[in-house]
Design brief:
Distance between the termini: 23 Å
Strand content: 5-15%
Helix content: 40-55%
Oligomer: single chain
Shape: globular
Structural class: alpha/beta
Number of strands: 7
Order of helices and strands: HEHEHEHHEHHHHEEHHE
Number of helices: 11
Largest sheet: 4 strands, parallel
Strand order of the largest sheet: 3-2-1-4
Length: 273
């Protein structure tokens, strides 16, 4: 993405409000994560519920707990909210899970959101922050090509700034762990299936019940590779038996702990070879 305006440090929140005011009416792609929740709340408070529709893409790649939290946030904050089914699983290119999978996913998202935006007379906005620009995320360009806007990027918001502003505003999402779509747990070239997405979702849900809030279960066929924060590595070992039982119950034959710890986009490493 090009053409990002550099905003003086400390002016970001004012700039965000100005950008949203200029747009007037928006449809927020609302995943319930810290970025989209912050964007939705600022837009809601600034423009009012009649001008802001928060739409959550509902598909097998969205964990049930995440959809439920989107509903809960909408109720808590008085957001005008809708769940919108997306059909990326009907796209053979998405299912094939090539390096451009995210582009096909965002295409399906825009296919679902554009009709809503047309009815609303609104612009689709996504909760992308400046730090996201540094990773390989072809979906961002696909959405931008369809006319989506990224107000957090335009206003200069980093992930840390989103979290700090969210905390100052008392938003419970300020420290919510990142929760990318379940398909991001599958290595490129591994077909996306309902079974694999279900196994990942069940394994991650079970591990969260054991107390591991920030994690990824990477799907490698019969092997589940667990990524947790470095500070939690010892705790996984201490609870080894419970961890193994939880992950095997989700359908995996083997359980591995990644000693490098949790890192966003770890499966993109193969693209640099």
């Amino acid at each position: 993405m090009t053409g990002v305006t550099v905003v003086p440090e400390g002016d970001e929140l004012d700039e965000l409000r100005r950008r949203l005011s200029d747009l007037g009416r928006v449809v927020v792609a609302f995943s319930g994560g810290s970025d989209s929740a912050f964007l939705a709340r600022i837009a809601h408070d600034l423009l009012g519920p009649d001008q802001v529709l928060c739409a959550t893409a509902v598909s097998p790649s969205l964990a049930a707990a995440e959809e439920a939290d989107c509903r809960a946030l909408a109720d808590e904050w008085g957001l005008r909210w809708i769940g919108v089914p997306t059909v990326e699983m009907d796209d053979p290119a998405y299912v094939a899970n090539g390096a451009d999978r995210c582009a096909h996913c965002k295409t399906a998202l825009m296919d679902a959101l554009e009709p809503l935006a047309a009815v609303e007379g609104a612009t689709v906005v996504l909760g992308v922050n400046v730090d996201d620009l540094g990773d390989y995320r072809p979906g961002q360009q696909a959405a931008a090509d369809r006319g989506a806007r990224f107000p957090l990027v335009e206003a200069g918001f980093t992930k840390d700034l989103v979290r700090s502003c969210s905390r100052e505003l008392g938003l419970r999402t300020w420290n919510k762990p990142a929760a990318a779509c379940l398909a991001s747990r599958l290595p490129y070239g591994t077909p996306v299936t309902l079974g694999s997405l279900s196994s990942v979702a069940r394994a991650e849900s079970a591990l969260r019940r054991l107390g591991f809030a920030d994690l990824r279960v990477r799907h490698h066929g019969d092997v589940a590779r667990i990524e947790v924060a470095e500070s939690a590595l010892a705790a996984v070992v201490e609870q080894r038996q419970a961890v193994v039982e939880a992950v095997r119950a989700a359908g995996y034959a083997f359980v591995a702990l990644d000693l490098e710890g949790l890192r966003s986009g770890s499966l993109n490493r193969v693209l640099a070879r």
